[in-house]
Amino acid sequence: METSPPSGHTRAACRAREILERIGDKWSLYVISQLSDRTKRFNELKRDIDGISQRMLTVTLRGLERDGIVSRTMYPVMPPRVDYALTPLGRTLLDAVGFLVCWAEEHVDEIETTRARYDTRVESFHTPD
Q: Is the pLDDT score of 101 beyond 90?
C-alpha cells in the first residue's frame, strides 16, 4: 500500500522552499530591486545596497546567477569589467520584490515602534523584583 507524503512535504515543496530561501533573503531582495531598471557593475551594487559586505554581495550574486535570476557578463578589458543584470526569469520577480521592499520601507517606523513596545513589555515581565 502506497501512501502519499503529507501536504507541504512533497519533493516539489522542498525544492520550492530552497528557492524561496534564496530569493527571500534580505540581500537577494535588494540586489533584485537594484537591478530592476538597468545593468550594474559590482561596485555600483555595493555602493547602492547599504550595509552589504563585499563577501556577502559576491555570495548573493553567485547564488542568484546559479538560480538563473541574474546574469553575469565579463568583458575582456583592463581592468576587467563585469556587469550584472536580471535575466528574463529574474524580471518575473520584480513586482513581488518591489512590493516587499516598498512595504518594508513604508512600515519601518511603525515596526520599530512596536518592537520597542514589545521589548519594554518583555523586559519588565522578566525583570526580577
A: no
